[in-house]
Amino acid sequence: MGAKPTSRSYQTQHSPVATPMLLVRAPPSPAPLSAAANFPADLERPLRLRGLSSSRAGVTTATATAKPAASSLGGQKRKQVTSVANPLVKHCVKLRLSAAYRRSCRRLLLVGLAPILEVCSFELEAIDYLLLLDGVEAPEALREFSGDILYVSAAVMKKVSGMQSVDSTEAVAVMHMPNHFRDLGSHQDGDALDGLFSYPKRILVLDGIQDPGNLGTLIRSACAFKWDGVFLLPACCDPFNEKAIRAARGASLQLPIVSGTWHDLHALVTKYRMKMMAGHPESSSDASKETYSLSNELADSLLNESLCLVLGSEGNGLSAETLQACELVNIPMEGTFESLNVSVAGGIFLFMLQPKGQIDRTSTP
Predict the structure, then answer these.
(1) Residues 166 and 219 in one domain
(2) Which candidate, 228, 221, 220, places its Cα nearest to that of 246?
(3) Which residue among 134, 155, 176 closes a domain?
(4) What is the value of pTM for the model shown?
(5) Residue 318 belongs to what domain range?
(6) Which residues form the tRNA/rRNA methyltransferase SpoU type domain (predicted)?
(7) In a domain, 153, yes or no
(8) Which residue among 3, 149, 261, 299 is least packed, with the fewest CB closer than 10 Å?
(9) Number of domains the chain contains
(10) Domain end marker among 142, 176, 210
């Protein structure tokens, strides 16, 4: 470790996104409702967070006067939305575009069948509304869904999903934001983290990760290797951004995620007496600080310690606060490249430093 410092960190590249599954075309639907008929009368209720007022949720109630036609899903009534001016459509668009709006009403949008089915496998009851393209049939995996299913026109689906074509986007879901997501900026007391962590052994800290594909992939890897949670420092992108959700493959809905400042992180580290280490390319190491090389021996020496691992942003690397607070560790590389994509490097760190009792690092897959 005595290499000269630079500002480079593990560099970015987008992760490929899985092609969403297509739904099976159903028989022709009944005649669509008029633009004035937004919702059936029995759906006259606001979209609001359980236990919170509709003003906090910031969602508009949409009603309609037309009688819905029968649906083939478990005796439910078939409800249709044909106008892009419908209040629910406007709500969905804001959920897709605005992180602040998502956090204010504690709702998020899932675009595409693949992420919806991933959520249904472990949290079906968290879905409020399912929007299906008119003329398609809900898949077998959603037969147990007891919430509202709305059939929408192609124009509405394009507006809600932000896609130019509906060929591969025939489903959208509105769901509750997970209870284990905490935005410490909205809390004024010191008890915001109570009950979220129970003596955590491993926390992944992301320092200004701005690419949603990289952030989602890192959350997915942290969940795969049984880390206890993810802490997002300022300048990170929103974990419920559409691209981040796709890359996380449902992990962001299962793993505790905290958004806060360095002050909040220091409080967490102090409370649980955690050691802080930061991943840093060998070629960018600070010559004034000792830098460790990632190895089985290093990982074994940390098995009985609680650890926070910090990964820096793709463009600017680790922040000054991170460099000052953390011990540095690099991934030794024999090749000609000086650094790795942050999600690739993060996967290596997360695997090697995973909690005691997980996969044997010396075994051959």
Answers:
(1) no
(2) 220
(3) 176
(4) 0.76
(5) 181-352
(6) 203-351
(7) yes
(8) 261
(9) 2
(10) 176
* Same domain assignment for residues 163 and 189: no
Task: Tell me, yes or no, whether 66 and 93 share the same domain.
Answer: yes
Type and span of the H or E element at 101:
helix 99-105
Same domain, yes or no: 267 and 311: yes
Strand partners, 327: 277
Asked if the structure places residue 363 within a domain, the reply is no
Q: Which residues contact 298 (CB under 8 A, 6 or more apart)?
A: 292, 329
- The residue length of the chain stands at 365
Q: Over the stretch 188-208, which tens digit does the pLDDT of each residue have?
A: 455 666 677 878 999 999 999
Render 135-183 in DSSP notation, one character per residue: TEE--GGGTT--SEEEEE-HHHHHHHH--S--SS--EEEEEEPPTTEEE
Mode of pairing for the β-strands spanning 107-111 and 171-176: antiparallel
329 - beta bridge partners?
279, 292
Q: List Cβ neighbours of 304 (8 Å cut-off, separation of 6 or more).
A: 356
Three-class HEC string of 23-68 = CEECCCCCCCCCCCCCCCHHHCCCCCCCCCCHHHHCCCCCCCCCCC
- Each residue's pLDDT tens digit, 61-87: 343 433 354 444 544 557 899 999 999
- Residue 163 corresponds to which tokens in the numbers above? 């896609």
Cα 291 to Cα 311: distance, rounded to the nearest angstrom: 15
- CA 226 to chain centroid, in Å, comes to 16
Say if 13 falls within a structural domain.
no
pLDDT band with cut points at 50, 70 and 90 for residue 269: very high
Same domain membership, residue 240 and residue 128: no
Radius of gyration of the chain (CA): 23
Tokens 């001016």 sit on residue: 85
Q: Which two tokens stand for residue 42?
A: 């029995």
DSSP state of 258: E
Task: Retrieve residue 354's tokens.
Answer: 């995973």
